[in-house]
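request received
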Amino acid sequence: MPETIIQVRDLVKQYDDNTAVNSISFDVNEGEVFAFLGPNGAGKTTTVEIIETIRTATSGDIQILGMDVNKNRTEILKRIGVMPQDFSSFDRLTVWETVQYYARLFGSDVDIDGLLKLVNLQEERDKHYVTLSGGLKQRVGIAVALVNDPEIVFLDEPTTGLDPRARRDVWEVVKDLKKRGKTIFLTTHYMEEAEVLADDVAIISKGDIIAHGSVDGLIDQFCSTIHVAIKGAGPGVKEIADEMSLVSESLGNGNVQIEADNNEQVVEILNSLKNKNIGYGSVDIRKANLEEVFLKLTGESLIDKGDPK
Amino acid sequence: MNFKLVYASLSITLKEFYRSKASMFFVLLFPIILMLLFGLIFQDQGETVYDLHVRDLDGGVNSQNITEMLGNTEIFNIVEVGDEVGDIEDAKDYLTEHKLNAMLVIPEGYSDGFDAIMIDRFLGIPTNDTVDVVMIYDPANTAAMTKISILNSILDGVNKAATGMPDVLVLEMETTVSDDFDYIDFFAPGIIAMSVMTTALFGTVTINTELRQKGILRKLATTPLSRSEWLLANILYQLCMAILSTISIILIGVGLFDLNPHLNLFLPLFVILNVFAFSGIGMLITRFVKEAESAHAAANAIMFPMMFLSGTFFPLEGMPDFLQTFAKVLPLYYVNEGLRAAMITLDEGTLMTSTVVLIILAIVIFILGVLLTSWKHD
Ligand SMILES: Nc1ncnc2c1ncn2[C@@H]1O[C@H](COP(=O)(O)OP(=O)(O)OP(=O)(O)O)[C@@H](O)[C@H]1O
Ligand SMILES: [Mg+2]
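response:
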């Protein structure tokens, strides 16, 4: 039975007449990667920073490491590591000096070079923070969040704005941390990130947790559709779908996409193709993802609304 | 208060400062420019001898005495005006015609009047009689104003002498035209007070709004560093800046302009108190005014009245009473007065008043800073 390390009950946060967080409850278990997934303005940062003790809840009961966030601030801060959203640091300190400064604030004699190795920043050791690329800056943020050897690490959107390569580097670091037994509280609006990293996902939208579970569990529960994409096929594919009363779509050039409900239907589609002697280039079978779960639950798309790109 | 954390924070801010050529430039530039400016202005004035046109309509012994005495001060170069000026009206015309800014007219009967008063005094007969000399001047001309104020202080000396305390005349002359102090000596303390205030106030506001915008304050809030440790580290940082600018002001003053201040422990004391008070105020501003631009506007709103109303540039004596009263509630007034006393006059009363007022102020502001500011936001 996993130990609960963070327990949130009926958390409400009100900003004037805006309810940023609307009575949410959830648990985070020790040693897991917990992902808080939601679009811009969903209330992720608000929730995380209340748990980190740097904001005050309007109401609710929040326990972390068995302590109340309103009463044991000092003790809690010693045992958690925080990388705030949009982490930034002193421009003209070197990477090493930056990590050293935060280590001194915690009175920690952590092996700084070892820490830099963990986040893969050995080569940047003596570079000024301001000269680093975005991905490297984020990794400094992670290193800084680890100076006190925390039991729980909070990473608020650690990969937002990074290119795919840099994102994957950060993911590796997170996986490594998990291996070292840390509990990781991650917020993100990339469903792929949650899929790759998270043991447990809570989807938050407009201040409410609308779904909570493992990635596979959520997909099975809310969106069990299996996408079967048949490419370069001859005529007659759409008819197979129609016979089985499945939703399908012709994408031109003999490409047809069929939405199957379960594995048996997938087998049936493939068998029909064979029986009817319909030739095809390739078949791509893919489960639904969290993006679709979110779309289904909210009717809205998860990624980067309002982002012109 | 964990001083290790204060020290760690101080050393990284100093490191950043040292590595930023731009901020180094500005911390040193401002006081140096002010000092050069005032130095050049007052270097000339210190050596200037003012022409003073005198029309002696009396021609007696006493009128010649006073003319001679004014010439002996070495501030005035006496230019005697001849017969073409027969009365006050003539003098005004003469002034306009020759584009002069001031003329002293000693009316007829001055010597006799003066003698009469002196005899009455000597015999112990009480009298309210006076003798007048007339200064005709162009009110739009600052040089004329300077001449009038110098003249006033000299005549003040003469008056005191005439009431039977001849040595007071000498004393009065010493403070007015002493060779020991140039004008720059009177301005250097004001420049130090103002540079230190500006650096401390704006430095604190700039650093903290910038760190807030970058989210660094938010990150610091998740560490064991307390708000008061951060406040103290900031103040100590500003103190280092203040020491830099004070030293550069004094070095430039001494090196280029014959600045000749007293150096004693009151100088560092007032610099320290100045920094405490104004960094504290800066910290409070950033607590309540979150946007960088409004925070700077608030700092300006505090700085400008101080600059102009606490006697740094303009002597308070000439100001309306209510402004003089207002000046006495401005912290910078006490820094100015205190530094001037410490570096020039060594006036013990002023030193004590300034010390007490500033210590109380610094403590109050520091406590407010600790109580009112918190890492938590909403
Ligand atoms: N300090 C604040 N004052 C007032 N409103 C706030 C404050 N902080 C957040 N909000 C509001 O609360 C809501 C939730 O904001 P929050 O920053 O928690 O969202 P988020 O999920 O972290 O979004 P993002 O992905 O953009 O970081 C938003 O509507 C936001 O405008
Ligand atoms: Mg956020």
